[in-house]
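Module 6 notes. Inverse folding takes a fixed backbone as the condition and produces residue identities as the prediction. Think of it as a translation problem where the source language is geometry and the target language is the twenty amino acids. Below is one complete input and output pair. Work through it position by position during the lab.
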């Protein structure tokens, strides 16, 4: 049965042309990275966490790039952190929401393919849904970024507890973003169950891909040469494509399981109960 499900998943992924959708979503996400970074820096400055750049982010960048490049990046970041205003934050937020809304529109079309439904919503309604999802997903992404780069500055057992809490909150934000897209992006809302297998697959594989990408950036990457910079850009593009493809594969998995279980789907409690019975 597992072999049949895998074959069906591969067939559906090909028939629905999800590779093209994953490429389009990844490209739009790549374009959104610049205002996203500006927004994150602006929020760090507004929240009084300018030390995060000096203690966490800048030291990780400095040995990977040439001194002129680092000086330019460092000067720009410090300028934003020290003089970032509400206007800058609002402008960056508007750009992020716009690019994310365009990306969400691609997700909407891809999920319509996955669920094999026709788009019958009006243009206005689709725009409103895309905008609302873009804002919600953007809040989750910015929150996740701030959780990753900020440090509570504590030591001992309290630091460990806060670190665990940060990762749990990070997983919650990622799960919330995935759940909102899966639930509200398609034209017909699937009768999904929270913490479905597809959502867990998306989050789990995305975490692994992110850790591998981070490992490459921190231990292998060298942006001091033209080849190194080009390789970094290619791998960043590949990472975004893999992330988009993972999301669409998770949606296909959920749709297949719903069909196999007559619309009930498979959620986390089902997996735990099955594991206990075995």
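Target side of the pair, the amino acids:
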């Amino acid at each position: 049965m597992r072999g049949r499900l895998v074959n069906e998943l591969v067939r559906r992924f090909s028939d629905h042309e999800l590779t093209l959708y994953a490429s389009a979503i990844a490209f739009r996400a790549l374009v959104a990275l610049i205002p996203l970074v500006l927004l994150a820096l602006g929020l760090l400055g507004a929240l009084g966490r300018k030390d995060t750049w000096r203690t966490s982010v800048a030291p990780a960048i400095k040995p990977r790039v040439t001194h002129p490049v680092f000086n330019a990046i460092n000067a720009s970041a410090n300028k934003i952190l020290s003089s970032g205003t509400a206007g800058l934050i609002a402008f960056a937020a508007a750009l992020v929401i716009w690019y994310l809304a365009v990306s969400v529109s691609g997700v909407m079309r891809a999920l319509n393919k996955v669920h094999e439904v026709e788009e019958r919503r009006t243009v206005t309604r689709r725009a409103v849904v895309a905008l609302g999802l873009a804002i919600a997903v953007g809040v989750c992404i910015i929150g996740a970024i701030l959780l990753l780069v900020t440090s509570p500055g504590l030591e001992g057992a309290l630091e460990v507890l806060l670190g665990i809490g940060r990762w749990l909150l990070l997983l919650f934000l990622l799960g919330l973003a995935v759940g909102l897209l899966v639930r509200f992006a398609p034209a017909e809302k699937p009768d999904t169950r929270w913490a479905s297998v597809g959502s867990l697959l998306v989050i789990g594989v995305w975490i692994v891909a992110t850790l591998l990408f981070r490992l490459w950036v921190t231990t292998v990457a060298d942006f001091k040469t033209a080849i190194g910079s080009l390789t970094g850009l290619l791998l960043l593009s590949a990472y975004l494509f893999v992330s988009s493809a993972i999301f669409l594969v998770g949606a296909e998995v959920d749709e297949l399981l719903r069909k196999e279980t007559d619309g009930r789907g498979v959620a986390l409690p089902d997996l735990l109960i099955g594991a206990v019975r075995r």
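Reference fact for the lab report: Residues 2-277 form one domain.
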